[in-house]
Amino acid sequence: MSKGKLQIIPLGGLGEIGKNMTVVRYGNEIIVIDCGLSFPEDDMLGIDLVIPDITYLLENRDLVKAIFLTHGHEDHIGALPYVLKQLTVPVYGTRLTLGILEGRLKENGVANSSLVAVKPGDQIQAGAFKVGFIKVSHSIPDAVALSVRTPVGTIVHTGDFKLDQTPVDNRVTDFHRFAELGDQGVLVMLADSTNAERPGFTASERAVGATFDDAFRKARDRIIIATFSSNVHRIQQAIDTACKFKRKVAILGRSMVNVANIALEQGYLNAPEGVIIDVDEINNYPASQVVIMTTGSQGEPMSALSRMAMSDHKKVDIVPGDTIIISATPIPGNEKMVSRTIDYLLRQGADVIYEATSGIHVSGHASQEELKLMHNLVRPKFFIPVHGEFRHLVKHAKLAQDLGMPKENVFVAENGHVLEFSPDKGAMTGKVTAGKVLVDGLGVGDVGNIVLRDRRQLSQDGILIVVVTMDKQRACVVAGPDIVSRGFVYVRESEQLMDEAREKVKHTLEKYETGGITEWSTIKTGVRDTLGKFLYERTRRRPMILPIIMEV
Amino acid sequence: MSKGKLQIIPLGGLGEIGKNMTVVRYGNEIIVIDCGLSFPEDDMLGIDLVIPDITYLLENRDLVKAIFLTHGHEDHIGALPYVLKQLTVPVYGTRLTLGILEGRLKENGVANSSLVAVKPGDQIQAGAFKVGFIKVSHSIPDAVALSVRTPVGTIVHTGDFKLDQTPVDNRVTDFHRFAELGDQGVLVMLADSTNAERPGFTASERAVGATFDDAFRKARDRIIIATFSSNVHRIQQAIDTACKFKRKVAILGRSMVNVANIALEQGYLNAPEGVIIDVDEINNYPASQVVIMTTGSQGEPMSALSRMAMSDHKKVDIVPGDTIIISATPIPGNEKMVSRTIDYLLRQGADVIYEATSGIHVSGHASQEELKLMHNLVRPKFFIPVHGEFRHLVKHAKLAQDLGMPKENVFVAENGHVLEFSPDKGAMTGKVTAGKVLVDGLGVGDVGNIVLRDRRQLSQDGILIVVVTMDKQRACVVAGPDIVSRGFVYVRESEQLMDEAREKVKHTLEKYETGGITEWSTIKTGVRDTLGKFLYERTRRRPMILPIIMEV
């Protein structure tokens, strides 16, 4: 890299939701901001999760000084269990963030990691970088933005944020610090673009409290609230409202129980003695005195709420009279699952309060007016929109230009782009390896395009396996051909088709026998082509056809 | 059925989007309203489309007098190519509806159907039923509601509708006829619930014309508009705006070309001589004089717009300066595909105008205030909400009750429920077969739960095929075991795993050989269990395992 220049290299989070990760490099020193996962796209069949490709960091492993975390959401910390197996560096984050991370590391058998807790206002020196932590509001407590002082200038990375003027925990965003940094001069800002399309201000988290209040007042029997497991503020408001209406609260769903326990322990969640009860105790109270907080607000098929909706939960049955509050908005791609869950809950006679019909959820991300305020406080010379689909980045870039920033100072980048800055110039100067690493079970990165292509073909029309045992010497069939299919047609009702298919294969094999052809690959191709054509004509389907020749 | 009673039996369209179909029966006479398809759910892998199960109609085939259509959308006519192969009855619909249907029937090789064109205001006697056609507004021209006079009372079925006060074709909804029917007394109303969650009024289609006007004014170069292929009003407004700005219009995408040709022929679409050009001519004009109307507003991977976005279209390349208008809203489930298309178009440097950032689309369905007006005009005694997810039906039912209808007169039903009416009583009296028939290629109904379950398993972790040739007499292995996998792991990088797997199988087979066990099913189960356990331990994946024994 050019001497005396500062590089910012996003390895994830641009042009996508999730998988947030940014590299900052000066000379031979690197720090990393966040290390998140994302969830698989629809065409990534069988994939559990997706993490950033960290080839660049592994190639420069000796230069990496530390990883700094902005908050405890999966899309900011979720790749660490994988990355820390390959890279031994200290990780800095606030207490709740590290509390959640510790659980994840333990689940994944990562020991000996060096986690260092910081507080908003702290400053950490890491090589040439001085990293400061700045309080912001988000849909999880203890979220921070970062300031990074470098020899070239100061970077501000907002992390995920909103400017909630009345946060539930009263810990207001540190406007003063952003203003101070703006006064001192900021070279580059990277800022959350998730809600760059939304005009106005994002409503305060407290608005949900008011809606809870209404809903609790109307509900006669049991109340079940589903939300994101890490939304501690939301859980707090449910507890507060429950206290007001003299109800007990049971928390259900492994991930929410984990987060709630950490948050209670660390004081980010507060409940008067005796309010929180075990889920096994709910039947000791009349329905009118019970609130169940649970997961499944995205309609995830295995979640507690989905199981209840499908009458498949061990401990909770939905009964008429239940009021169910889905306190979340469907993440893009989850709309149909959420909708299906609502329908099943309604079929069971429950009252369901959900987003389309009420103000039961607010976003954790800044809308346009908040973004403008952030830009005007920080007054950066250069700007890199981060966190969002490409169209969010474009929209955020336009917003910055509307505020007066010259077009050439705004960088709508892609993951892996190297953005290089001197005190008065910024440019895209190169590219490094960046991309998606797919995690499937214990396999990290072993499922690639070929495996996915096969899964896609298998998922569409299934597979036909043609097995034949041949005598290599005499080039003749000893057993078979046998045809086995899965996912193609219902075999019991398609005997004729399968018989005809077998005849086709037999006929093809006889041709090769007569011709004395013993090239297995020629025979396989012949079988595949003949059979593929026959089946397409008869069914308009293209199953995978797998000829196997056993040699005796 | 009870003598002198009227039955209404929904066979589709309740608790789901699409696949609309309603049976009306009096004594031994049946008529059917609409006959639509729906698109497969995410878990219906490889399925092309879904049609209603018409077992009930086939069991009563001699009673079915006719099918009546409300409009030409796929979810109202799309199952006819399949149903008319099994059921020979006349089909009544307006001209555009039948024009579109004819194309579908021809594509599917259905000849000799008896299609009868009607006009709004017409009345058709079919057995004991007198069916009237009432003009309504919708996102396709020539849409009608139906009145059905029966010996028990009058039914009103709204079809899909909105109450557009300023429709593009100036054919305003026949409010007078609804009022007249209401005056004369209506026994049962079935009404569109799609937008029952939306407060207020749905904006007029003309609002989109104003947005087009703005967009055309700002665009310097080429304009590309994507919308639903059957939205003739939208195409008309694009043509009108193009004329105003002296641009030519090329229509691209097979389905849109088909509909536009029918609509032009029948006079539902009007374009001055020379305005519509062939897509091959677009390069004869400067970019500033060209508009391309196309399909792909849902991000469908094979559509014209998606191909353009991916630089994969034969005739049109996206270039910086292009303005692309996505004049549609994503249908639930399509959000991510639409979003991906927008991102790729932006990456190519185009300006993209889409729903989240503009008023570039209006719905074709009535919002709450329009629904209320319809209820107050028709004043039915009984009400059945139709067309919508279960939650939309529930919402629409509540709306009817808010308007004063007694709860027991409102029926939130499921497909297959038999709703029976006398002049003063309505009740759910039974159930008939109803459900989804899956169409996959040429197969109608041959893909069921077993095939789908296999496709799902194959799609998640692939398949391992274990082949071994055995000598039945001597109960010993003659060739193999060979293991072939697809969609499980990338084989070239997993040789060790596959070798170990083969050893495991060998070991298992040896055990059986030693034991003299020749029960193929025992051996297969043993192989499957051993291998499944081994692979899960090593990979945390559960591929389908298919042991095949060839006997010599």
UniProtKB/TrEMBL annotation, chains A, B:
Please state every residue range assigned to the domain named Metallo-beta-lactamase: 18-212
Task: Indicate whether Hydrolase appears among the record's keywords.
Answer: yes
Q: What is its EC number?
A: 3.1.-.-
InterPro entries, A to Z? Metallo-B-lactamas, RibonucZ/Hydroxyglut_hydro, RMMBL, RNase_J, RNase_J_2, RNase_J_b_CASP, RNase_J_bac, RNase_J_C
Q: What is its main location?
A: cytoplasm
**Which residues does the record give as substrate binding sites?**
H361, V362, S363, G364, H365
SMART domains found in the cross-reference section: Lactamase_B
Cell compartment(s), UniProt: Cytoplasm
GO MF terms here are:
hydrolase activity
The domain of life is Bacteria
Under Gene3D superfamilies, the record lists: 3.10.20.580, Metallo-hydrolase/oxidoreductase, Ribonuclease Z/Hydroxyacylglutathione hydrolase-like
Which keywords fit this entry according to its UniProt record? Cytoplasm, Endonuclease, Exonuclease, Hydrolase, Metal-binding, Nuclease, RNA-binding, rRNA processing, Zinc
The record's PANTHER family line, in alphabetical order, gives: RIBONUCLEASE J
Its assembly, as annotated, is: Homodimer, may be a subunit of the RNA degradosome.
> What does the protein in this record do?
An RNase that has 5'-3' exonuclease and possibly endonuclease activity. Involved in maturation of rRNA and in some organisms also mRNA maturation and/or decay.
Question: Can you name this protein?
Answer: Ribonuclease J
